[in-house]
Write a structure and sequence with these properties.
It catalyses: 6-phospho-D-glucono-1,5-lactone + H2O = 6-phospho-D-gluconate + H(+). It contains 7 helices and 11 strands. By secondary structure, it is α/β, with parallel strands linked by helices. Helix 6 runs parallel beside helix 7. The structure holds ligand LXAUTJHC.
Length: about 240
């Protein structure tokens, strides 16, 4: 596990974008399949990518997926797809055919199956699980990642690549990438910023399987954790 710490959330987002662009530049013929997390943390990175790195990115090779989705229509302010579309995808020359959203407005169980089929069709697989180039995760201050919350640890070892699940705090239905799919990725990256994430970062980095995010960080083979000083202040 490699920890990369920067002074500010801006510097952290910028370093992460540059890391992804570096990875893309390693094989200029290859399609690059990356799954993005939801929540509020990546918003800064999406905005920065559109405004500062638009011309440095080969959009024709970037294939965009989601780690998880809230079961709401794309126009809803809770939609992970909606946020990324507004801040990044609508601002850059990427083809619709390279954007694979989870349909939050559809039946969650059926959508999880449809999304599994799409990802398996688009990229190589290992033991029935799609193999992403990068899975970009966040972490909640309770230690959840993807939409796998504490108490739902069975989703870390589910035999389904994507499942219907729910947020235990408010019952909101969700669709989530499960543990094996995350761990299968060539690279698992966490982007975690802000003081309220300091405990979860300390848990991920210094302890064992204390929650879903920590479990992933300790079980994936290549893990990079991008944090700012505030998130790192309990290390
Ligand atoms: O519910 C979710 O929470 C986590 C963390 O979100 P943040 O707002 O604290 O950045 C996120 O990684 C996950 O994808 C999301 O759906």
């Amino acid at each position: 596990m490699k920890l990369l710490k920067y002074k500010t959330a801006n510097e952290t987002a910028s370093a992460l974008i540059e890391r992804l662009l570096d990875l893309m530049s390693m094989d200029e013929k290859k399609k690059f399949h990356i799954a993005f997390s939801g929540g509020s943390t990546p918003a800064l990175m999406f905005d920065m990518w559109a405004n500062e790195y638009k011309d440095d990115t080969d959009w024709s090779r970037l294939y965009v997926y989601w780690v998880d989705e809230r079961c709401v229509p794309p126009e809803d302010s809770d939609s992970n797809y909606g946020l990324m579309k507004k801040l990044l995808l609508d601002q850059v020359p990427i083809s619709e055919n390279q954007i694979f959203r989870m349909r939050g407005e559809d039946d969650p169980a059926q959508e999880a199956k449809r999304y599994t089929a799409i990802t398996l069709e688009q990229m190589s697989e290992v033991n029935g699980f799609p193999k992403f180039d990068v899975v970009l995760l966040g972490a909640g201050d309770d230690g959840h990642t993807s939409s796998i919350f504490p108490g739902q640890e069975e989703l870390l070892t589910s035999q389904e690549p994507f499942v219907a699940c729910h947020n235990p705090y408010n019952g909101q239905e969700r669709i989530a990438m499960t543990g094996h799919t995350i761990i299968n990725a060539d690279l698992v990256v966490f982007l975690i910023t802000g003081e309220n994430k300091a405990d979860v970062v300390a848990d991920i980095y210094s302890s064992g399987d204390t929650g879903p995010a920590a479990y992933i960080a300790h079980h994936a083979s290549l893990v990079e954790i991008f944090i700012d000083d505030l998130a790192g202040n309990k290390l």
